[in-house]
Design a protein that fits this description.
Helices cover 50% and strands 8% of the residues. By secondary structure, it is an alpha/beta fold. The relative contact order is 0.14.
């Protein structure tokens, strides 16, 4: 556990507890119980880019996919003389070879994303010091997608996964329109990025699905776009609608996005009693040569959140900010608005030191009324390391809070630890989206 000097808690080790009352009797016992409970509690992963096996090739797993993760591609160019244009011309397996050699053989894999690959290989019993990828490739080639999925969910103790579903993506549309039943552990989240952030390009795609929309957002276009969303909500049964937004997102806003948000999205959320997830602070394509790896971030104005929550009290918002500098303000706004649920340590915040800081701040300001983490996994195997890393840090932060509470005069019971963990890892989200 970080920073906790057990000496400060001397009286905790004085044997003044009672081992049979369900409460830990000293700090080491408390630590053991928290670690055990956090390790065993199933997770409802509320934001990923994973797909159920029914989505075929969209379900990514294996060493070549793991290494071609955009977090690692960005890191590759810190070391390699290979230029981005040359990298994109290479075959996927050659790209993976280059990333392995550069980040794992020629350099020590210290970053969060490289350590993640090491954790996956190690947990699967593969050589973390391999000179090449033959052993790993052989291992993954032998895995059957459905069996491997069971294995990964079991190892990472993830009970439910929320996908990111784009109603304008042809490959996804085919699956939604098909007859195959989608694995009930994979839930939909209807993503609105293309609709809200790229209206002009979205129009022909929505028209193609037989909705009479125009670039000019007039009454007919508003009604037709609402009909489009109503139909997709019926089809996908999403747990929430979601959108990523730039750091300069404003509310209200004089723009197609502002108009669509006000006239289409918020009324749809209200009508279907469905939450809206706002993921704020991404600065897309800061370096376009890096493609998906070329996005950055900016500090946003959190006052937009107070306004949107106040103006739309019947709508529930799931919110995450990408900038570390926005985290404290997010907690403050959450204290003011019960229709706001902060979630996750998104993307550039999904690093041990920052998760630790944000989670401790959230315990101090919000108790257990928040959702500490989502994985954002794009490749199935990543569930293993992302949850392995996050569980450990959340356990440390929780232990620190319990120890402080004990210092103030109250010991938690095992049952309370279990109740808190269940809320943080699944209950708060399930309750928010009306699953129980
Ligand atoms: O917009 C998002 O949902 C982001 O999480 C992703 O697009 C981003 O590329 C990512 O993978 C972050 O983890
Ligand atoms: Zn994401």
């Amino acid at each position: 556990m970080n920073n906790l000097n057990t000496k400060e808690f001397d009286y905790l080790t004085a044997g003044n507890g009672n081992a049979t009352d369900g409460k830990p009797h000293d700090i080491n016992e408390l630590r053991r119980q928290v670690d055990e409970v956090i390790a065993a509690t199933p997770v409802f992963d509320l934001h990923t880019h994973l797909f159920a096996t029914q989505f075929g090739e969209l379900n990514l797993f294996g060493i070549d996919e793991l290494l071609n993760y955009h977090y690692l591609i960005a890191e590759l160019f810190r070391y390699s003389p290979v230029a981005p244009a040359e990298f994109w011309r290479m075959e996927k397996s050659a790209q993976a070879d280059l990333i392995w050699r550069t980040l794992f053989v020629e350099n020590t894999p210290l970053s969060e994303a490289t350590r993640g690959v090491i954790a996956v290989l190690s947990i699967l019993g593969l050589n973390t010091r391999a000179k090449n990828l033959s052993e790993a490739r052989e291992f993954f080639a032998a895995q059957k997608p459905a069996e491997y999925l069971e294995n990964v969910l079991k190892i990472s103790r993830v009970s439910d996964v929320v996908m990111t579903n784009d109603p304008l993506d042809d490959a996804e549309i085919k699956v939604w329109n098909g007859v195959e039943q989608i694995d009930s552990r994979f839930h939909a989240a209807l993503r609105l990025d293309r609709l809200l952030n790229g209206w002009t390009e979205a129009v022909p795609l929505i028209e193609k699905q037989n909705y009479a929309v125009h670039t000019k957002i007039d009454e007919r276009t508003i009604n037709e776009t609402r009909r489009f969303l109503d139909d997709w909500i019926r089809k996908m049964k999403p747990l929430y609608l979601g959108v990523s937004l730039p750091d300069d997102f404003a509310y209200p806003e004089e723009s197609p996005r502002g108009k669509l948000l006000k006239e289409v999205v918020l009324p749809t959320c209200k009508a279907h009693n469905i939450s809206l997830a706002l993921m704020i602070g991404v600065r897309r394509q800061v370096n376009p040569a890096l493609k998906l790896a070329g996005d950055g971030l900016g500090r946003a104005d959190v006052s937009i959140l107070s306004r949107i929550c106040a103006k739309n009290p019947e709508v529930k918002f799931l919110v995450t900010f990408l900038s570390r500098e926005n985290q404290h303000e997010l907690c403050v706004v959450a204290r003011k608005f019960a229709n706001l649920m902060p979630f996750g340590c998104w993307w550039f915040l999904n690093n041990s030191s920052i998760i630790s800081e944000i989670t401790r701040e959230r315990f101090e300001m919000l108790g257990t009324s928040f959702i500490p983490q989502h994985s954002d996994a794009r490749i199935l195997d990543q569930l293993i390391y992302k949850w392995h890393h996050s569980r450990r840090i959340i356990a440390d932060a929780l232990l620190e809070s319990y120890a402080a509470l004990w210092n103030d005069g109250r010991r938690v019971t095992r049952a309370e630890i279990e109740r808190d963990a269940a809320k943080l890892f699944s209950g708060n989200f399930r309750g928010w989206v009306g699953l129980e």
